[in-house]
Amino acid sequence: MEQQRGLLLLFLGLQLLLMGALLYQNHHRHSLALFLRVLRRDRPVVGEELPFLVSVSSAGTSSQDVYANLSEIHPVDRRKEDLPSCPLISPYINGPLRVMIPENLTMEQVVKKNPLVELGGQYQPPDCWTRHHTAVVVPYYGRDQHLQHLLFHLHPFLQLQQLHYAIYVVNQVHNTAFNRGKLRNVGFWEAMQEEEWDCLFFHDVNLLPEDDRNLYICDIFPAHVSVAIDKFDYKLPYRGYLGGVFALRPIHYLKINGFPNSYQGWDLEDHDIAARTPATSGAPRAPTSWPQSATKGSRMASTRWATGCFPRSCRPSTPTSLWTSSSPLAGPRSPRGKLRGSWRLDQDPQDLGCRAALPTGFLLKDSLFYSLLLSANLHPHPFISRR
Q: Composition bias, kind Low complexity: at what positions (predicted)?
């Protein structure tokens, strides 16, 4: 009897050991999967996550015009509350795009090409509930042709991604040195007054994305988006470069206390933010869910950008009229159709004045909002005040 009892206890003990080993193995697998997800930095979405790489069908490998698929988006005859959620990956994205800007482009043409964009430059998908809400803040100082080109290209680009978005153009009207950090702060303040955006893109006016798989949504960390620009042969010009397009969440903006107001000129505030961000919100990095080509010959998507940047020596010292009819002098085009070279804006000493809202359907902020921002005691940030 005692021998049978001992065998039974031994059998039960072996079962417990086996069960413990299985539980430990499953826990180990779960921990490993969690660790890999953290390494990949998948985007946090309510209830689900985006895939590590965005893929499209093989039919969408050739470059096409950004407006090619826009006609497929149209309102549906259903109540808004009955609309389904938008798919995880938009069915309208294609991949590589041909950057094609019409000659003598006007704001009226941009509005006509984007009938679903609401007054103020805001858009919501008409056929589904969007998952992402993105504000694009564009500091602007006398570069009317660049602004027209950006709106012409970026509006359909964002609509294809099924985003709820708005483009905020923040205008500096005084004939003083360009203060991009302050304009970005104004854009953030005004954007968050209108909507509870979960993502903000601070966007230079002279950069155009060349692949619609470059999703305008935020990561769990701040992201330097324009990591491959044609002007720099699709490489970072130097380590720590943070210019062009920068994405972050509102909580990240508050952690870094906004952008510095103390820098005047070009690019200086980007160096400051690059130094400050790792200590507060995590080091800015290239977005991981936007695939980048390993070589120039790869057919994968890459975070590539076409520039319309005129040389520093040619930048106008006075603002350029928003209604100037001058056309850009485009540089040579590459065989792949990317805009290369430099654009030059004609000089116009006329002051832009204060235009809070234009009749074109695109919101243009002005410097009247500076006082609103500075009264909030957000700036200058601590690193500047110690100097």
A: 317-329
